[in-house]
């Protein structure tokens, strides 16, 4: 398709396609990094006080997956990034080619990653009846692999592709095979040296030769089943996440600066309703003012510690 289409062309049946405010929040400077505390008991005692004996909804962000080898966007000192918007992707084939060329390399990072101690600890807490479920901003599927059963993936999942026209879903692995056939040697030529972002975007600059596959059902535009920058969270995910917060007695945030509103809204919801909030993150967050307790500790240290010490709620 030509690059001259407007955004309206790619939202059939919608009289009002997305027109959203886009706010890219830069990472804090390196000097904003907080040192890891040596005394976990002292650092996490306020968190235990805020959460003990209560059922918890949990919000997680990219910080929980860094110890699985997946980088995040907003750790202090991180390189600034400008993610592609959904408007760019849908309206111009050059942007789509650029995105697919990078993702064809970058998706292997979450595909081969393994859950770390933080993911496993949350699954354990759910099994014990303490965690009611996890609301994650991550697309890496590591919570599901760790065994979390009740999971809301606010921003979608990296391992699934859908057609923007007919809505058919395809496994990412299957689409990868199509693209390998169209672009032989592409992944092998780039995978060793390319830096990958948490959204499976590999940093490549020369992508003009990459060939993109259309939907085999209708010929439409294929896209990852994720929330792009400037996109909207699916309403059903918002409803499910809100229900999880509402039925829990407290809220735990782990590994998120809450820089984007998609997750911050649920912290505000919990605060509005008087639920205690605890935040575990290596740096400051946009919701610190709402928290009964904060701890600047890595989630792979803090969450296993909590899993051993939080008492189960009274039945």
Describe this structure in words.
The structure is a single chain. The chain has 315 residues and is of the alpha/beta class. It has two domains: 39-70 and 115-155 and 233-315, Rossmann fold, CATH 3.40.50.1220; 81-112 and 156-226, SIR2/SIRT2 'Small Domain', CATH 3.30.1600. The protein is built from eleven helices and nine strands. It has helices at 40-51, 86-91, 93-106, 108-112, 117-127, 142-146, 172-182, 186-190, 235-246, 261-272, 299-309, and strands at residues 56-60, 131-136, 151-153, 156-163, 169-171, 222-226, 250-254, 277-280, 293-295. The protein has a six-stranded parallel sheet with strand order 3-2-1-7-8-9, sandwiched between helices. A three-stranded antiparallel sheet has the order 5-4-6. A hairpin with a 5-residue loop joins strand 4 and strand 5 (169-171). The longest helix has 14 residues, at 93-106. It is elongated. The termini are far apart. 42% of the residues are buried. Mean pLDDT is 89; it is low at 1-15 and 17-23.
CATH architecture descriptor name of the largest domain: 3-Layer(aba) Sandwich
Number of helices: 11
Mean pLDDT: 89
CATH topology of the largest domain: Rossmann fold
Q: Compute the CA-based radius of gyration.
A: 20 Å
At the first level of CATH, what is the class of the largest domain?
Answer: Alpha Beta
The low-confidence runs, each spanning 5 or more residues with pLDDT under 50, are 1-15, 17-23
The major sheet is characterized as: 6 strands, parallel
In the sheet with the most strands, the strands line up as: 3-2-1-7-8-9
Shape: elongated
CATH superfamily of the largest domain: TPP-binding domain
Estimated share of beta-strand residues:
5-15%
- Number of beta strands: 9
How would you classify the helix and strand content by structural class? alpha/beta
Whole-number total of structural domains: 2
């Amino acid at each position: 398709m030509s690059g001259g289409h407007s955004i309206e062309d790619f939202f059939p049946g919608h009289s009002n396609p997305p027109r959203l405010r886009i706010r890219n929040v830069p990472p804090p400077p390196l000097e904003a990094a907080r040192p890891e505390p040596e005394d976990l008991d002292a650092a996490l005692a306020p968190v235990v006080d805020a959460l003990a004996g209560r059922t918890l909804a949990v919000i997680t962000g990219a910080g929980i997956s860094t110890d699985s080898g997946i980088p995040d966007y907003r750790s202090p000192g991180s390189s600034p990034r400008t993610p592609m918007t959904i408007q760019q992707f849908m309206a111009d084939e050059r942007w789509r080619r650029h995105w697919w060329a990078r993702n064809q390399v970058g998706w292997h990072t979450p595909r081969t990653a393994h859950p770390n101690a933080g993911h496993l600890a949350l699954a354990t807490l759910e099994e014990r009846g303490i965690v009611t479920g996890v609301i994650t901003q991550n697309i890496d599927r590591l919570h599901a692999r760790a065994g979390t059963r009740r999971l809301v993936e606010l921003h979608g999942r990296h391992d699934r592709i859908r057609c923007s026209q007919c809505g058919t879903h395809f496994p990412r692995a299957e689409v990868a095979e199509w693209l390998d056939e169209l672009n032989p040697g592409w992944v092998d030529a780039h995978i060793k040296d390319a830096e990958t972002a948490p959204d499976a975007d590999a940093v490549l600059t020369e992508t003009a030769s990459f060939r993109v596959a259309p939907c085999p059902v209708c010929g439409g535009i294929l896209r990852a089943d994720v929330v792009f920058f400037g996109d909207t969270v699916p309403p059903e995910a918002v409803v499910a996440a809100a229900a999880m917060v509402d039925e829990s007695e407290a809220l735990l945030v782990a590994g998120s600066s809450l820089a984007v509103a998609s997750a911050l809204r649920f912290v505000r919801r919990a605060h509005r309703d008087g639920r205690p909030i605890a935040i575990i993150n290596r740096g400051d967050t946009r919701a610190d003012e709402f928290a009964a307790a904060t701890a600047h500790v890595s989630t792979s240290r803090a969450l296993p510690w909590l899993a051993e010490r939080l008492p189960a709620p009274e039945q």
